[in-house]
Amino acid sequence: MAGLTSSTIGRKYAMALSAIFLLIFLVMHLAVNLLSVFGETAYNNASQFMGYNPLIQFIMQPVLIFAVIFHFVMGFVLEIKNKKARPINYAMNRGSDNSSWSSRNMIISGAVILAFLVLHMYDFWFHEMNYKYINGLPVEESRFWGDLHAKFADVWRVVLYVISFVLLGLHLSHGFQSSFQSIGARHPKYMPMLRKVSIWYSILIPLGFIFIAIYHYITQ
Ligand code: HEM
To answer: Which residues span the membrane (predicted)?
Structure first.
């Protein structure tokens, strides 16, 4: 681990691995939350299973939290190192001529996602930890859907979530292909395919989350 994070290449590799892990998490998180649109029972059952399964709670969840924190810390470290390595921007380098906005501003979209996650953890995760582990309240399968639905009654929360999901899409539009390239997927034969999957992923995943937030708002 120390070896991975002590060189620039190692750091980029470790960053990419944590990104790929989070890309997989996002698909699963979207799938579970989409159930809330199709029916209360399906969503309650899935949340009950995930919320009380020891493998998910005590192994997957800590790994996920570690991956999230690691990804953000390494993102900031890489940004600072890059800035130090090139303190003066090349006078002739007009960024927009040779790179996209999202690739030049990963740190900005990342910071917005970090701010979103603070609100999101406050909204759902702390509430859940409080319920189960601090207050030790009994299993009550029917509570999950109602709790989620109630959160989206507030238009400002919906607006903040939707803005964050748009920034998430921009972050993913560069991050998806960049992370696969960092772990070696650079073969010219596969690049067009990687680019296509990256574009579709970065559109469909945020759109799915936007749909859930707006669905719960308009069905209050
Ligand atoms: C409308 C969109 C979303 C909804 C309704 C939603 C819902 C939830 C809920 C209910 C939980 C608590 C799970 C539990 O511990 O029981 C949760 C946790 C979490 N969410 Fe979301 N989420 C959404 C979008 C996102 C996005 C876009 C991200 C990442 C950028 C994200 C990252 C997380 C993380 C890291 C956790 C804590 C880990 C976990 O327990 O699963 N969520 N979310």
So the answer is: 12-38, 58-80, 101-122, 155-176, 197-218
Please give the angle made by the CA atoms of 39, 156 and 150, to the nearest 5 degrees.
30
Which of 22, 29, 68, 121 maximizes ligand 1 atoms within 8 Å of its Cβ, making it the mutation to test the pocket? Answer: 29
pLDDT in tens, 192-207: 999 999 999 999 999 9
Q: Is 112 in the pocket of ligand 1 (CB under 6 A)?
A: no
Please say whether the beta carbons of 63 and 105 come within 8 A.
no
Which are the contacts of 107, defined by CB distance < 8 A and separation ≥ 6? 75, 76, 79
Instruction: Give, using CA atoms, the residue closest to atom 9 of ligand 1.
Output: 124
**Do residues 77 and 6 make contact, with C-beta atoms less than 8 angstroms apart?**
no
pLDDT at 163 over 90: yes
**29 CA to centre of ligand 1 in angstroms:** 7
Residues 61/121, Cβ–Cβ less than 8 Å:
no
pTM: 0.92
